[in-house]
Design goal:
heterodimer; A: Beta-Lactamase; Heat Shock Protein 90; 3 domains; 3-stranded mixed sheet; 7 helices; B: Rossmann fold; 4-stranded parallel sheet; 4 helices; about 40% helix
Chain lengths: ~375, ~150
């Protein structure tokens, strides 16, 4: 049915009141021909025929005046938002602007809320990612701390074992000293036995001294405080002393003890005599201690400016795995053999370095 | 000098600072308040370059997804309008401590796109330079076209 004229008129008035249309006609050069309606609200007040409409209405720049087009929410001068309709007609073009301020305000408010929510969501995501990173770092740090704690516990246990072992090591020579001192003081002891007792006491006392030196050496090395005291001394004499000290201990266990000093070995060398003595006491002491049958041999050779002192024995030896731990403090091999002592050899410039005699140790 | 009016389109994801960049360039002002733009906002400024059209891509350095959006927009624009002149602004340089895009990625982007600027609409850093560079590119394109 056709709407009654009264209804049509009502709707038209309603639309005009709401949309407040402003219409202008331009030619192909965007020049204003004429206009209809109120232009104040959309910022086009005072436009005169002939004006280039791209100045007051810059959205027309680049717009084809031969194609029908529609633009929503165009911002006009004075912050008026319009819906613009471009309607070509016979080489000219009508442009109709409809008031869209209320609709724009409503849409803008909704979009603003949505965008702010999305920004908040993005920020939350970023925060969550940072929290995850922090948690990962915390877990990693805790794992490291656990590792260090276990390591500290292991070292502490090793030190406890070391102290227990040293107590035993100390007791043996001390007992020997006490026993032989008692024997020497007893009435009726022959002068020959007294002399033998004194010699044994002297050997035990020397051994005790060496043990004390080992402990102090280990403690100093752990604190990084060891300083080598080097001077010229008679190496052959030192080796002979060592042999004289160890031979009776080996004999007591029924082991053979042999010494070979290569004729090329120099008599005088420049090194730390005390350290070298310690090393040899420990190496030979362990060799005697852990060898049940056979014997122990002390060998010294000298080639191309390198002195190599080897202590070999027919004992159980050190497993491949334990050889890696030989130079760690307070470590024993699986067989219980103590290797807390450091082994040294000498390089061509008279400096003592660790590890270089690892191969020699491994051959024991 | 011939005066030519040109239209430059500013494109980019929401809240990357498109309005702020234009505001900084045209009026040398900046507002901390975020006001979402709906529809088409037109600002005009006269500069000493005649030019046809070009594009200003704007991304937000604190939101890597806005750079991904630029890549999509660029391919769509190139498909529709051909190889138009453009510059890429990675905005919010004043918040660089909060940027999550790596320097390696930005270097790769510079090699791939060319004319990438780290800008701040807030402080104005490199905004003028970027848009002036766009004008130069537009002129070059225009002259080659002519």
């Amino acid at each position: 049915m056709d709407l009654p004229a009264r209804v049509v008129e009502y709707l038209q008035n309603e639309f005009l009141a709401q949309a407040r249309p402003f219409c202008f006609l331009i030619d192909q050069n965007y020049r204003l021909i004429e206009c209809w309606g109120h232009s104040e609200w959309c910022g086009l007040r005072g436009i005169k025929p002939g004006v280039d409409m791209r100045e007051p209405a810059p959205f027309l720049v680049g717009i084809s005046v031969t194609d029908s087009q529609r633009f929503e929410f165009l911002e006009m001068p004075g912050q008026a938002f319009v819906n613009a309709h471009v309607i070509p007609d016979s080489g000219q073009c009508y442009v109709v602007l409809l008031d869209a301020r209320q609709e724009h305000a409503s849409t803008q408010s909704k979009q603003q809320s949505v965008n702010e929510l999305r920004l908040m969501h993005a920020r939350q995501h970023k925060l969550i990612a940072r929290q995850r990173d922090l948690i990962s770092e915390l877990v990693e740090t805790k794992s490291e701390l656990d590792h260090h704690r276990r390591e500290a516990e292991r070292i502490s246990a090793n030190k406890s074992r070391f102290i227990a072992m040293m107590s035993h090591e100390f007791r043996t020579p001390l007992a020997s000293i006490i026993n032989y001192a008692d024997l020497a003081r007893e009435e009726g002891t022959s002068s020959n036995d007294v002399q033998k007792s004194i010699e044994t006491i002297a050997r035990s006392a020397k051994h005790l001294t060496s043990l004390v030196e080992v402990v102090l050496d280990d403690a100093s090395l752990d604190a990084g405080q060891v300083e080598l005291v080097e001077h010229d001394f008679d190496l052959v004499s030192l080796l002979n002393d060592m042999a004289a000290m160890m031979a009776p201990m080996a004999a007591e266990k029924g082991l053979s003890f042999a010494t070979y000093i290569d004729p090329d070995v120099p008599n005088l060398i420049y090194a730390d005599e005390v350290r070298l003595r310690q090393i040899l006491i420990n190496l030979m002491g362990n060799a005697v201690k852990f060898t049940l049958d056979g014997g122990v041999k002390l060998t010294a050779t000298y080639n191309d400016g390198r002195l190599v002192v080897t202590v070999s024995d027919t004992g159980p030896g050190i497993s491949i795995e334990d050889q890696e731990r030989v130079f760690q403090a307070f470590e024993r091999g699986a067989g219980g053999r103590l290797h807390s002592q450091r082994s040294h050899t000498r390089d061509g410039r008279g400096r003592w370095t660790y590890r270089e005699c690892a191969d020699t140790v491994a051959t024991q | 000098m011939t005066r030519v009016t040109s239209k430059v389109c500013v494109v980019g994801d929401f809240a990357v600072g498109k309005t702020s960049v234009v505001e900084r360039f045209v009026t040398n002002q900046f507002s901390e308040k975020y006001l979402s733009t709906v529809g088409v906002k037109i600002d005009t400024k006269e500069i000493d370059f005649p030019a046809p059209s070009g594009f200003i891509y704007v991304a937000d350095g604190t939101r890597p997804d806005t750079l991904t959006a630029i890549e999509h927009l660029h391919s769509q624009i190139t498909e529709k309008y051909g190889a138009a002149a453009f510059v890429l602004l990675i905005n919010k340089r004043d918040l660089m401590h909060d940027w999550t895009v790596s320097d390696e990625y930005l270097d790769a982007l510079s090699k791939s796109y060319g004319n990438v600027y780290r800008t701040s609409a807030k402080t104005g850093d490199d905004v003028e330079q970027a848009i002036t560079r766009l004008a130069e590119l537009i002129i070059d394109n225009d002259m080659r076209g002519a």
